[in-house]
Amino acid sequence: SFSLLRVIGTISYSLYLIHQPIFAMTRILLDRDLLYYESFMLILIISLLGYLLWKYIEKPFQYITNKYGYILIFFVSLLLFTTATYQKSRKIEDFQLNKTIKRYLSYRYDNNPKGKICRTSNQIIKPDEACTYLENNNTDPSIVLWGDSHMDQIALPLSNELNSYGYSVVEFTVAGCPPLANIDVPLKVRKCYNNNLIIMDHIIKDTKYKDIILFAYWNYYIQNNHIELKIDKTFEEILGITIEKLQKNGKRVHIIYPTPKMFVNPPFHKARLEKILPDNNITIRLSQEDYKKQSLKIIQILDNNYNKYHFNKINLSKYLFSNDFYVANNQDVVFYRDDNHLSTRGGGRLVAKGIAKQILKGIQREPKSKNYKIYN
Question: What residues have CB less than 8 Å from 127, skipping those under 6 apart?
Fold first, then answer.
């Protein structure tokens, strides 16, 4: 008996046909996900268009009873058949993606080329077999990279940069596991708790490890139900316990602050934009306000521990900052693999030099002259 619901039911098929293209195209053209009020405005527009589509196309076609109507249906069907036949006759090359789109999409798979060897997934780590970058008798004590897939994505370019100053690097990365003792994740196949105990014990016992770099998808882990605390402490307190234990055993601790999380998947998004708007110069970006909203809690947690333990604070996001926004690409390079991981040869290389200098500053030593040529 509710007339508004009857109207919605009547025009529902027309609404169904047009809602997805309009929402999808709007997201692509705006270069971001929709805000709540924008979604609401689009619903109103789609409702109006759906009503017009029902009234002037769907309804008249439902009640065709004369020869003119049948003639119209015949010519519409003929048009559709001719178009389909023409498309079928075209060469497959006409539908292939151009080089620019392929280049954008390639960043989806821009991972650490040593990732399968260096990053542990669903296995117990073997510290003695960990990946070491540039180990020889002339290098200084090793710098340790300890983290999850976020660390693995920047491990190679960051190691190359540190290597070029004469420092060897060891990587301990476990996919989906924050680099903290006494923490586990609901996905038990990750074996986070056991792996972190092994890594911590190995780092503490090995005297050649002087500097420990911690980096992970921090924002994700502090969200509800993404971690399990193995002792009666908060995430912030467990982070502090980890830092304190490393420092008491003579290790310098460096923590990389979170990567800005984009609203879209940059490689996919740039590819779609290129398909619709060829040769566009649109930059995918995130405002300072949005970054503050998504990272405020974890930054407070990290800063609280910084005030207590005085580790070396490394701000990754500043190397992605340009013209008042955090950016995911420039004209030629996509800095992200997905909405939260940096791409290795894109974003990883972009941030590596600055992060390396911040690490060396935390060591309180001047960088050596670059005696090692790493990049081809």
Answer: 172, 198, 199, 202
Question: CA-to-CA distance for 162 and 169, rounded, in angstroms?
Answer: 8
Q: What is the residue-wise DSSP string for 63-130?
A: T--SHHHHHHHHHHHHHHHHHHHHHHHS-GGGGS--HHHHHHHHGGG---TTHHHHEE-SS---GGG-
How far is 130 from 355, CA to CA, in rounded Å? Answer: 22
What pTM, to 2 d.p., does this model score?
0.79
Q: How confident is the model at residue 376 (pLDDT cuts 50, 70, 90)?
A: very low
Provide the pLDDT for residue 285.
93
Mean residue pLDDT of the chain comes to 89
Please state the rounded mean pLDDT for residues 194-210.
94
Run of H or E residues at 211: strand 211-215
Distance CA 28, CA 18 (A): 16
State how far the Cα of 256 lies from the Cα of 145, in Å rounded to an integer.
Answer: 11
C-beta separation of 229 from 186 below 8 A: no
Gap between the Cα atoms of 118 and 99, Å rounded: 31
Query: In angstroms, how far apart are the furthest CA atoms of the chain?
Result: 92
Hey, what are 74's tokens? 């015949």
